Protein 1
Amino acid sequence: MLQTTHVRKVFGPSVVLDDLSLDVGEHEVVALIGASGSGKSTLLRCINLLTEIDDGVIRLDGQDITDPRADADRVRQKIGLVFQSYNLFPHMTVLQNITLAPLRVHRKAHAEAHEQAMQWLSRVGLADKAGSYPDRLSGGQQQRVAIVRALVNSPRLLLLDEVTSALDPELVGEVLTMIRDLKGDGMTMVLATHEMGFARQVADRVAFLDAGRVLEQGPPEQVLGDPVEARTRQFLARIIEAGRL
Amino acid sequence: MSTGTYHPSEIQLGRAAYRQRQTVRSVLIAAFSTLVVGVAIYFGITGSPGWDRVRTSFFSWSVAKASFVPVLEGLWLNIRMLVVCAALALVLGLFIAVLRTLRGPVFFPVRALATAYTYGFRGVPLIIVIYLFAFGVPGLRLQGTPNVYVLGGAALVVTYGAYLAEVFRAGIESVHPSQLAAARSLGLTYRQTMRHVVLPQAIRRVAPPLLNDTVALQKDVGLVSLAGPVDAVRAAQITTAEHFNYTPYIVAAVLFVLLALPLIAVTDAVTLRAARRQNAGA
């Protein structure tokens, strides 16, 4: 469904993505792991067209979305992106945050957008927060709202950029549970994460990024349990040392 | 969370009593020093050799009464011009600020013009702009040249529009790029992102400085009298000439302060609210 081929991205003198290729199939969940600066976040921003690539091609359902003639706004409607720091709109209530795109982008009727938003909020246990402003919510609640905000667009693909990295440890669970539920729904997801345990549980495939390339990919048990590459082993050893696996 | 039967400890009661004594002491010291300063100022002014002359030529009750109505009538012009000019200047400022944020080579001339405008009109003294508009434009002898009120008002609007544009721009730039990324990732266009995400946050943030500039505009409205219209300052000048007495200026000054007070109070309230919201959390 998603094909990134030979993607290159440079910021000044530093090559962030270097001839990177990665395919994602329908209903597949791919976890991107790798050290900070290995290009995980940049790759997600490139797929969402927030960042322009410097070479290569990204295709979604066969369409070249990196063609400058492609309608970037139309493409982004099909790709949801959830950020590490939630990025909810602070001047809008939870409900307004969620219904903004359905109302303005998809031109849905008020009642319909409302109902859909409330259904999602009930499902994630936040119906009573619909009228609250984001600063009244815990980090875990804010991140769940941010995920719902992306989901009401009915995206073909959901990108999750270290969505638990800014959360207190006791709040990580509620967000991970939600992502696990989404996998149950068959949502196609690419998630950049530092939660190796979670990647092992939820991902169909784990891709280890190093210096802007996919150095190694495969089933989680293989990549996380018995990696082929020396760099992957080194990375996992450091993670284990830090007590994160 | 806490049980209903809470009694403050001895040590807490002691702290409260100490703070209470400190408060009383501070109030007494403040009252005493205010009195001393007030008395010093009073005797300093009334004891000065020229006080009697100043009192009769600046604080004459009869002249104040005589000048009150004409000055007030002039002030009515100030108020009307203030309301219209402030509204137009805010709209113009917002418009220019948004133009300056447009990206892409197509908009280069628009950006350049908007930038040149804010640089130019923040640099030129308001008095010169008023003269150019009120005397220069009619000099062109074009059909349908508006009257001096409109021309003077236009001078105020373009000058203040330039200042307000920069305030708005500061607000727009203070909205974190991650907010734009979030909006664009939802499929919103650049315009929708500006309209629904960036501008609402930007305007909230710069409301206090915008109101502050409106207070400043309130005073500068009086400069339009240089081109002829009889506003409060001009009315005071006329009555001063009639009575050979400066009291009308004092009357005008007092009225201007009274006019500014509500606006200043609103500005303070808005600033306070903004500060509270900021402290409440992200």
Protein 2
Amino acid sequence: MNEQANETLNEQISAYVDGALSGRELASFEELLAANPELVEKIEITRLLRQTARALPAARLPRSFTLPPNTKPTLSFWQRLFGDAAQAQKIMRFGSAIATALFVFFAGMGLLNASAPPARVALVEATPTSTSPAPMVMSAMEAPAAKVIPIPRDAPLLGGGGPDIGGLGGGPPGNLGEQIPDVVPTNPPLPTAIPSPTATPTATPTPVVSVPVPHTASLSWAWVAGAFASLVAAVVLGVLGWRRQR
Amino acid sequence: MTTSQVALAASNAKLIPVDENLLITEAQKGDVESFNRLVTAHQAQVYNVAYRIMGDGASAADVTQDVFISVYKNIRSFRGGSFKHWLLRSTTNQCYDALRYAKRRPATSLEGLGAEDDEGDGDYDAFVAGDDENPHAFAERAELRHAIVLAMNDLPADQRIAFVLSDVQGMTYEEVAEITSANLGTVKSRLSRARARLRERLLEQRELLPGQYRQTSMGA
């Protein structure tokens, strides 16, 4: 008989002696018993073992194990802090309620702040000569009027002006590429580019794109931190109070 | 004075049994007297369980003392349920620790040298033969008991604890499972292994078995 089968048989013998075999298991085991008379001896010995163990005499106490009357109680942290357990529970519940109210306040203020209309716009300056323009985001108040590019005195002027004064803006399109190949931006102009109003006609116009700033940028971290801290406090105090109640 | 303290004082005056929950509540507030009443109510069982698991009186006394000190320190963490089971869980845990320590640092108890077997600390009334028992049968019974106790001490700790709680203390599988923090299947398995080992030991010493078992063995 292998070890697993032997173990199963031992469990069945143990359960049979305890009367813990259910109807079908019992019938099956009794069939096994009828076929294996040596099992009867094992069961009888197990019963004897159980009876003898149950009848073992109770040991006499060598002494009393009571604690000396002056034994100091070991108070928990909360008991040292709050005293009575019931009082501690009340304080925790009250603290949890306060923290919940704070959470609502902080979360509400944070949401109000976030939902206010954005007072800022971002300007993206497209650098005409750059192969990989890096957009610059800043508020309208902070943005410089325009980037003025110095132009040599004898260079042909762009924009405005007719051909009789040397301006290229009004000339035929065919002349543009021939006369100033390096000044014309190689990148295609952005569709929403607008020239800066303060740019002089002689300067190369710098396209500026206005982009709405996402609302999250205006969320104050102080509100978020306050809401998070009060939520944690509410949960911790609530759980502690609930555990004390149990 | 709280209501529970008033009830305790009244019970002390009239010597009436007090609700265990009341004593626990007072003990949780640090009342040593209430705790000592709990100790008095449970110390015999705790000591007996420790005695059967540890196998000698000195170790059992040490374990019992440690159990009550530990329970007093941690009584605030008691969340209701059976206080007896909670105490016995602490007892079996302390026994595990003591057995592990004894395994690492084996030593012979001076107290144990004097006593030839476990019955040295026991209740001697249990060893007096009854009116209907002849001296021969009484001696046989004592020898069998002695053999079982010796064999119990050779069991692994988990099997010994399951056997002591179930067969010596007469607890159900469910109670043993709760005390040892094991599931029912584990308890049944440990118990069946313990019984099988003890049974094998007894079958090796058939001369200790009562007459009818010796006849069976001869027939087999």
Protein 3
Amino acid sequence: MNYPFGTGRARAAPYALLAPGILLYVLLALGPSLATAVYSFTDATGLPNSPIRWIGLENYREFLTLGAASKENLDALIRTFVFSLAVTVVQFTLGLLVAVLLNQKLRGTKFFRTLFFLPVILGVTIQGLMWTLFLYPLGGPLASFLGLFGLHSDMLGGQPAEAFAWVIVVQIWSNLGMTMVIFLAGLATIPSEVYEAARIDGANRWQVFREVTWPLLTPSVNTNLVLTIIGSLQAWQLFLVLTGYRAGTQVMGYLVYATAFGQTSGTTAGNTFRQGYGAAASIVLFVVVLAIGLTTQYLLRRREARLLE
Amino acid sequence: MRKLIVIFVVALMVAACGGGATASPSTSAGAQPSDGGGASTAPSLSGTVRVLIHQNPPFVDFMGTFNEKFKAKYPGVTVDMAVVNANDLGTSTQTRLTANDVDVIDIFSFSNAVQPYMKNVNPPGWQSLIEAGLLLDLTDQPFVKNYDPAAIADAGSFNGKVYEINLGRVGFSGIYYNKDLFTANNVKVPTTWSELVAACAAVTTAGVPCMTAGGKDGWPIFVGAYGLFGAAYPDQAALAEGLWTGSVKYTDPGFVELLKKAQIYGRDMMESGASGLAGDAAPGRFASGAVAMFPGGTWYGAAIETLKPTFQWGYIPFPGSDNAADNKYMFGKYDQGWAIAANTPNKDAALAYLAEFSDPANYQAFVTAVGVIPTQPGAKLETAIGAELAPYLANFRLGFELVWNAPKGAGQFASPMQNNMFKPFGTFEDPQAAAAQAQADLQSGLDALK
Amino acid sequence: MSTTMTPNAHSSGGPGAGVAVRRRRMDPGRMTAYAFLVILAIIYIAPMAMLVLTSLKTLPEFTKNAVSLPTSFAFDNFVEAWNKANFPRYLLNTVIYTVSSAVIFVVTGTFLSVAIARRFVRGGGVVFTLFLIALFLPPALIPQFQLILRLGLYNNPIGYILLFLVNPIGIVILVNYIRTIPVELDEAAAIEGCGYLRYVLQIVLPLAKPAIATVAVLHAIGVWNELVLATIYLTKSDYYPITRGLIVFNGVYGNNWPVLAAAVLMIAAPMAVFFVFMQRYIIGGVTAGAVKG
């Protein structure tokens, strides 16, 4: 692209200024992740002075094909897809809806905006704590409310499907604000003249949205889709706080964490150091996320290009 | 671009080389041979002792007091104590030992060692630490003799050397029960399974839920009915070996019987909503009088006492069998202990710290504060839970949890912890089906060995 | 890309802005909108209200009935949380970590994003993809730890801050936003004799305020609430952030919810205030300085 700020030495300015960012990235993100990839082919324990042997694909074989444990790993993978799909669809739609509504000058916009974004500010641990408190089955608020109708539910302690559903709800609740904020920022870039022009042309509200707002929102749409999909594929901290390590509820992110820190038995006994194996698990997750993420990005770019024609 | 590649490669090398590196230069700095391995009584020690412990309020409070005492005796030494969640203890131990950033560590007992009949299992964390040379050999330290040799051998040794002094045992196959409620309803203290079922029925008719436990955390349900396993298989090490060699199967009629009882326990005895209760909330429920019984470990004793229940309570073994004689055991484990980092720059002070802790007076104070079964012969657990436990101490047995390792590839139900397979905690409704699944899960790992 | 649109004017809202007369008459569309927002708001307020309610109760009150209203307003919980968790010191630490990392990241990130969005750098697309991939990267806890250790920055605030300087989400947001800034602006600025550096700092930065504010807030939240990394990397108690202070209430989740709730509220409060303050920048649209026509 055209660089209007000079030639020769001046041309180097962007390179020089972006160098620190790249350096940090390579040092702190890419480097360690490549190291993880390398470790995944070894039997490293993560402790110094332990001998490290190259074992090739052995870790992967164990994770993906060895016995009933590997079937559970694959189940976790499927569950991760389900989780991501559910969360993305609902969070994206609701977030867009709320942003559009709040973009009109209704009264109390600022209040709603702050309210819906508040959970994002609190962070995962607090979100989990709040809902653990709220969903307390023995006399907690929701339990009491249901009790008024004679209903009872164990909620997070109930059957795996129910607990899983609740985690989906909390995940959406917690991150809706972020989706909303990104859409709001995107909506703010659309000048009001454009809407007025469309309305003068006789378009109704839905047509305005479809023909004007939606295409112009493409950057925010892309950002939100990528973030939500990837975030939900990797999510695990909420599971840690809300359900703990429970059969039938694991998702890949949690599995990776638990494997790396030897917490797959649910008790404090049995802490093992298996950095190599944990690394393999995390690479598996990475490959999955990469595949889905890059595909999403590719599809979105193609759509963007088509829109510009 | 080339510069980027160079940086990239350097970063990669630096990051990748971490694993095989030797730890930072070793310890001989500052290790004056303390002759005869001694608590150098002269308070000429200096420097800092960095201590890492896990969160447990009575323990943390006790350590505060102990640290004051230690500093008074050795004014030249600073104690820098850090507290982490029990779940994070393993990770913190690993990172801090690697960074040589800790001197005295709180570590759980050495358990789950690889037994001779086990193949294809991962060595437990503590073994990796020892093999990496990160724990100090304590074999010849005088303070080790303060402890029960069996405790040292069972919970703190490896290959004939001592690496940990274990501070106490806990029992976990018992039930806390509300004495007053029982008396008021004319309920007999159960010594057999049928009596337990009857007792539950009686209190439920009187309008009080029978039991509670921290169902949300999973393991409290399993631990609560340890007595079921224990009554059927009093030699837990043999149970573990039997499962490995195939002489014991989950589908054996005896085991299925056990699972049937486990189902009754989870479905009928536990109060509804227990599956959503967090582990730490359960003692509170019991202490408030909301339920008649609370199966759990002796470590809850201190918590219950702090909550000052308005009623008399007791602790009995969980009667898993209809033969009272089978129910006399108390199953438990060795709990926490101390170890020292092999590369500590301040070995003398660290050793003095442990020596001071092992002093019978200090140790007794610890036992009283935290409520463990002592591992020093002279100490006594004289709190309420201690009194309740006393009759069963002679029949203390280690739970299989401490010897068990599942083979790699085994499914999630392969370990003998199937109490929480049944609804409402799990998804199973048929003990036979649960047994079959458990056996399949275990078999899958065993088959992979061939 | 919206490069053919008229330059962004000062826009205070979408359709409906400027038509002030409608206020009294509520059309059904608006009513449904309100109804929906109110219901959603209730779903949002409920758990938070529960937290606040709990923090004002005493423990016996809470154990007896979790949902009753507190009989007195037990501010003791807050005092206890403040004292026990050594708040002032740890709060200061957290503020330092958060502000430093946010500032450094915004600066390096902006330069990265401008260069990528405008393709001023060869291979910018590759770099962007690399950052995208960084979003997917597995947590490399142990290698990162070994790296920081070897750099000598273990148990060191600088090392800790370093961990937070790579934030792919921020880059993605910034790049997508900067792409909406018209290219004509660059040329206009260059014609007026603006160098690249000045251009970014004095023109792009103000224009990208909504995105930068968003990124800064998100980044700050991540650093503010971090517990695991703080536990691993900062073992000297002088360096603890306030999340480490929460540990004193851990393990008593079931036992002392009121004090825990109070502690949680105290930790969350500054961030909430910060966000409210930043709101003006995040959603305000673009302010003056834009090129006309």
